[in-house]
Amino acid sequence: MTTTAPVRRPTVGATSISFARQTLAGLRVLVVLTVLLGLAYPLTVTGVSWLTMRWQANGSLLTADGARTTDPSHAVGSALVGQVTDGPQWFHPRPSVAGDGYDTLASAGSNLGPNNPDLVATITERRASVAAAEGVEPAAVPPDAVTASASGLDPEISPQYARLQVDRVARENGLPRDRVAALVEAHVVGRDLGFLGEPRVNVLRLNLALRTMAP
Amino acid sequence: MTVLVAVTQAALVAALLVAAYRPLGDHLWRTLTGERHLAVERAGYRVMRVDPDAEQRWSAYALSLLGFSTVSVLAVYLLARWQDHLPLSSGVAAMDPAGAWNAAVSFTTNTNWQWFSGESAAGHLLQMTGFAVQNFVSAAVGIAVLAALARGFARSGTDGRVGNFWRDLVRVCVRVLLPLSVIGAIVLVSAGVVQNLHAPSELTTLAGGAQHALGGPVASQEVIKELGTNGGGFFNANSAHPLENPNPWTNAFEVLLLLLIPFSLPRAFGRMVGDLRQGRAIALTMATLLTVATGLLTWAELAGPGLAPAAAGAAMEGKETRFGEAASALFAAATTGTSTGAVNSMHDSLTAPGGGVALVGMLLGEVAPGGVGSGLYGMLLLAVVTVFLAGLMVGRTPEYLGKKIGRQEITLVALNVLTMPALVLVGTAVALVVPAGLAGLQEDGPHGLSEALYALASAGNNNGSAFGGLTSGTPFWNTLLGLVMLLARFVPIVLVLALAGRLSSQRTIPAGPGTLPTHTPLFVGLLVTVTLVVVGLTFVPVLSLGPIAESLA
């Protein structure tokens, strides 16, 4: 794209006038693009989602019966967000440092470094307390039971940690151990497509199913 | 088994990138070079009152870009300062001046460093009209600068004309980013990423506790955050948050999104300069570096060195169950390799060698594959350095893509290569001698140094990820990092545009017997080496005091 226009070097004054002109043009461009990308785009996606995937778009909320709802006042939580279930009758989630634990207004990990002495002490304490609660050797406690997740809202635990809790949960709810064990196995989700991510158990869904079983 | 799973996940992403290389690369090329305007674009240009067909010299192109970026910073700043008066703000407070400055610069420069938690400090309108808009346009600016540089190589004997900034900006938004975002957002909603305009509302949990159901236009923002290699999370936990990244396949999808454009642009570049092999050589160089980084990071996280991983039995602190070590390491390598800065695990809790690789991924200058546009123009400058060094070795005038690399060209390139290290190292030094800087560090010893270095490396490479232990929401850190982000973005952009102008005015010379071929495996090897040597010479001392000392401890 050759052009024969003569080369003119703008003076400093011309540059500053030109910069002001370009800035004004920039303002007009930004306004138009904001209407398109900042309003039309998210509102269109919101509308399409509302029409076609209302449950997912509203946070995948579940009622106490395990049914889908879009109304928080009818919900006991989100299928995708962990919550505190620390009574002995429940399956327990991972440790959480989001606020006082599973605070959705304060999602966070500990951000403690790999050699942080406080973190090592906390992990050792968690291991002892989980082992005591489940009546197992400390060495049997899996890593996810003693580490805080990245979001503080991890909805899931490893199948190992779920299995570790079967004895206690069966005992506390007066249920046969093998029924609770079978319930856990039915809730184990494998890797997506067989190789993406890790096997896991959704704690809220497991506890909701447990509730329908409890006498 | 775990290693096999890790390799298969990465291979899937790689295969999808290879599949997208040609169609997306060609689409980007058509977007940047096509003569015809879409009807909607023509209507837009009329409202904006800009002439999309006026070819700009590099200086006018730079002024348009800087003018646009100036109003962008101002707009986000004002939105953040006044957000408590805006609709849909659901009770969030206005940001303080230093905080609003940092947020405005951060999103305008494609860094997306966040000193604040999105869920409590940013209302929906600020997220949509401030942050998400900048996610789009800052990505488009990166591609625009790359396009200008590519035209510099492709054109011959002009008076320094490198294209039209407004046309590049609008076209990339309308033809590339917006359509891909609409599709991606709907895919993400189907998996459970939230998309509404609700404020948080309280619910009673199964055990009788209180929790808030979260709302917001999350999916529409999540997708452009990855696609534009921006990285600012709607929520504090970013892509580790289950409502931003609900399951392992959305995780793979998000990794794909953040690598998609950076790895397809070399194809568009190859077409623009009329030699597809040149683009392929660059893409291979990027892929080589990223593959090594991914491998090392995955190895580090699976091996789990360090006291805390040893106590826990695995490096699962700061990682989500659904991702585990392998998918977290893949994301960490991709996000630091692309200047995205989104995270699906907490990088401060990565193992010492893993955190070190993430840090080096940024210190490479974000070229493997780097941010959208910026990664490729950064890599092209390193290619110029490479032919220059090779030229010195054999005593010939170096040339790249038919353009002589003379004194002025190499001066512009050298200034460019030096800008980032100067900002990172001087910034880190300032933070470590000023009490207000030291006050932000969470950890003592080498990990404390790593926290400061990581923050400056993140700001100085427009990445935005953090060692989150650092308390960065203070006036000192907000001001320092804001300045570093601004200079790290716009100093190189102006230098690259100046180079583009010079190249465009040069006459293309035909390749002769003395020309170093720049599409061969030999050149790929040289370019990888030069990239590593430049970062090695610059950063080995400070890395020794931080992550290396920590790994050996």
Account of the 3D structure:
- Chain A has about 220 residues and is mainly α.
- Chain A contains 7 helices and 6 strands; from the N terminus they run H-H-E-E-E-H-E-H-H-H-E-E-H.
- In chain A, the strands form 2 sheets. A 3-stranded antiparallel β-sheet of chain A has the order 2-1-3, with no helix packed on it. Chain A has a 3-stranded antiparallel β-sheet with strand order 4-6-5.
- In chain A, strand 1 and strand 2 (about 70) form a beta hairpin.
- In chain A, helix 5 (about 165-175) crosses helix 6 (about 175-185) and helix 6 runs antiparallel to helix 7.
- Chain A is elongated and about 80 Å long.
- The model of chain A is unreliable at about 1-10 (pLDDT under 50).
- Chain B has 19 helices and 6 strands.
- The two termini of chain B are about 30 Å apart.
- Chains A and B meet through helix 1, strand 3, helix 3, strand 4 and helix 7 of A and helix 1, helix 2, helix 3, helix 6 and helix 7 of B.
- Chain A: Belongs to the KdpC family.
- Chain A: It holds the Pfam family KdpC.
Estimated helix fraction of chain A: 40-55%
Oligomeric grouping of the chains: heterodimer
Largest sheet of chain A: 3 strands, antiparallel
Strand order of the largest sheet of chain A: 2-1-3
Which structural class do the helices and strands of chain B define? mainly alpha
Largest interface: A-B, 111 and 133 residues
Low-confidence stretches of chain A: 1-12
Subcellular location (chain B): Cell membrane
GO molecular function (chain B): P-type potassium transmembrane transporter activity; potassium ion binding
GO cellular component, one term (chain B): plasma membrane
Family (chain B): Belongs to the KdpA family.
